[in-house]
Amino acid sequence: MSGTPTVVSVRMTDQFAADLEVLQRGGMSASDAVRHAVRLIAQGQGTAERLAQNDGGRRPGALSIPTGALYGRRAPYDGRDQGV
């Protein structure tokens, strides 16, 4: 996207560090984890806005997220630990 900054700075707080650690448990880099989290929230907000357009401007009180969407993509398994 043109006009989009290539670097974003985020203040590291104890809570942010703890949340980031949770997201990185699956092996994601910090950058990938932040991108993944932002995308999930943006998709949720976009969905709420679309639903509100169809419901007289009233946003839903809750949205559900399929658990598969909560996890970032993992690299293909290559069987290294089994000598394959």
Describe this structure in words.
The structure is a single chain. This protein is mainly α. It has three helices and no strands. It has helices at residues 14-23, 30-53, 67-70. The longest helix has 24 residues, at 30-53. The radius of gyration is 17 Å and the shape is extended. The termini are far apart. The mean pLDDT is 84.
List keywords for this structure.
84 residues; 45% helix; 3 helices; mainly alpha
Can I get a quick summary?
The chain has helices spanning 14-23, 30-53, 67-70.
Question: Topology, pairings included?
Answer:
Blueprint: H1 14-23, H2 30-53, H3 67-70
Q: Which class do the helix and strand fractions yield?
A: mainly alpha
Percent strand: under 5%
Major pleated sheet: none
Please give the radius of gyration in angstroms.
17 Å
Low-confidence stretches: none
Q: Strand-and-helix sequence, N→C?
A: HHH
Number of strands: 0
Shape: extended
> What is the percent of helical residues?
40-55%
Total helices: the number is 3
Average residue pLDDT: 84
Straight-line distance between termini? 41 Å
